[in-house]
């Protein structure tokens, strides 16, 4: 099953889990803006789909796991004040200790004992070079991801991640030479417009929140002057009251 349409639902997982875990509420405009983003990415990849139930379940579980990782990483950054690259370093160490035994049991044993997986020396160097390059690029991707996550909310990061898949689809179509259909173009356009709508909805939400934040006025009981600001309810010997 093509994982890109399922991974595109990450904003939906994130907004639901953030509501449960972080008690975050969004405006109706923000919720509605997620629909064209998710739908656009899904439509853009309809021509590349192949269905498999195990693949579908795995993609859904992976998407939920990524959403939980983003939410709890943001929560740790907010609650502890730890640097985001330090947090990435700790998570990398934990992942190494957790998955290294699994890699040794399954992948390393297959590489050593399966005759079909033992290519020539030239191909081995080529494959090792590709694996090393893939590791370096993935390292940079994680650094950028945690740097962005330290600045924005988990939902905004999920929207950015879904938008990234539009560029992945476009580059894949160019590199692999797959024919570009009007369905692909329509889906990409819908997703891009959805991102613009999301940015506008978040901007309106921020402005509305700022307008609701009103500083209290203080009334001077001595002379009736409400323009003077009193510290801790007192100015000289005269008490003031918040209204």
TrEMBL record:
Keywords assigned by UniProt, alphabetized: Membrane, Transmembrane, Transmembrane helix
Keyword Membrane tagged: yes
Domain Sugar phosphate transporter as annotated: residue spans: 6-199
The UniProt record lists the keyword Cytoplasm: no
Transmembrane domains' residue ranges: 28-47, 53-73, 85-106, 126-148
Bilayer topology annotation: Multi-pass membrane protein
Compartments, record wording: Membrane
GO-annotated cellular components: membrane
PANTHER family: SOLUTE CARRIER FAMILY 35 (PTHR11132)
Pfam families: TPT
Protein name (database record): Sugar phosphate transporter domain-containing protein
């Amino acid at each position: 099953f093509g994982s890109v349409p399922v991974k595109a639902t990450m904003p939906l997982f994130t907004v639901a889990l953030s509501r449960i875990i972080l008690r975050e509420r969004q405006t109706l405009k923000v919720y509605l803006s997620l629909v064209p983003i998710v739908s656009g990415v899904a439509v853009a990849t309809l021509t590349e789909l192949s269905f498999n139930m195990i693949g579908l379940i795995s993609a859904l579980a992976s998407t939920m796991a990524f959403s939980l990782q983003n939410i709890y990483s943001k929560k740790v950054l907010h609650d502890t004040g730890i640097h985001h690259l330090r947090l990435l370093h700790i998570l990398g160490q934990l992942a190494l200790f957790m998955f290294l035994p699994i890699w040794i049991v399954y992948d390393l044993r297959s590489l050593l004992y399966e005759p079909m997986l033992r290519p020539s020396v030239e191909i081995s160097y080529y494959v090792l070079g590709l694996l090393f390059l893939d590791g370096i690029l993935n390292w940079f991707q994680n650094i950028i991801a945690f740097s962005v996550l330290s600045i924005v909310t988990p939902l905004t990061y999920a929207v950015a991640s879904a938008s990234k898949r539009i560029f992945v689809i476009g580059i894949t179509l160019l590199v692999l030479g797959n024919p570009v259909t009007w369905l692909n173009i329509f889906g990409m356009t819908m997703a891009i417009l959805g991102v613009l709508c999301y940015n506008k909805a978040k901007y309106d939400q921020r402005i509305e929140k700022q307008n609701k934040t009103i500083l209290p006025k203080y009334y001077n009981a001595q002379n009736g002057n409400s323009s003077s600001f009193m510290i801790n309810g007192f100015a000289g010997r005269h008490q003031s009251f918040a209204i």
